[in-house]
Amino acid sequence: MTQPTIDVAERDTLFNAIGTTVARLQSQFLGDQGDLLKTQARGELAELRRRAGQPIDRDPLSLEKTLLVLSPTLNENSLGRGDAPSPSEEAAFHALTLFALHMQSATRPMHVPKQSFAAACGRLYALSDSASLKPRFDALLLARSSRARLSHMRSMITLLRGSQLGFDYARFASDLRALDSADKRSGVLLRWGRDFAMGRFHTADDTSTSDNN
């Protein structure tokens, strides 16, 4: 049996680690597992939320906190070995902190498996009267740096939070990792543009999206 490449192994462990972690935090935050765990989850999310949209290297505790919250953790191939975070560590950090922002004051799940980030934004566009929403999303697609993209993502997720629209954070983390790869970035952005356009036509509880290739 052919062994997967390191790139595939990193992507798969990131998807699983983020999906399982945010599902757990979400269930605890919404009170599904009792008041004690709800209080604990609120504290963890509040701490993560303070770092949402910031570079991972701005705070020396950022990577440590990310790895402590993740369960299951990233595998050995996905972890960094030097003075800089690995692509999977950085994607996990941004996915977790933006999820924490999204869950602020939430009364329903904001991690919605199989619903893509861009499709949720398209659904928001269909429901919104704001003329600025599509230009905001377009600016995200056209951003020339990862920092600019993160700023636009933070803005869009704040708007999604206001309308209680969620998306799949495991897929989102995989996309964040791919966006920092020059040979994969254009494909992710093309798919996001498609998902945004098609998201307009989906009902609020429709979780269908284009394939995550």
User: Main sheet?
Assistant: none
As a percent range, the share of helical residues equals 55-70%
Strand content: under 5%
Total of domains: 1
Q: How many individual helices? A: 9
What would the principal axes of the Cα set say about the shape?
globular
Tell how many strands the DSSP assignment holds: 0
**CATH class assignment:** Mainly Alpha
Poorly predicted regions are 1-6, 204-213
Mean pLDDT comes to 90
Cα(first) to Cα(last) distance is 22 Å
Name the CATH superfamily assignment. Answer: CRISPR-associated protein Cse2
Question: How much is the radius of gyration in Å?
Answer: 16 Å
Oligomeric state, counting identical vs distinct chains: single chain
CATH architecture: Orthogonal Bundle
Features:
CRISPR-assoc_prot_Cse2, 0% strand, Peroxidase, domain 1, globular, Type I-E CRISPR-associated protein Cse2/CasB, disordered C terminus, Cse2_sf, mainly alpha, 213 residues, 9 helices
Kindly describe this structure.
It is built from 9 helices and no strands. Helix 3 (62-69) packs across helix 4 (87-103). The chain has one domain: Peroxidase, domain 1, CATH 1.10.520.40. The chain is mainly alpha-helical. This is Type I-E CRISPR-associated protein Cse2/CasB.
Q: What's this entry about, in short?
A:
By secondary structure, the chain is mainly α. The chain contains nine helices and no strands.
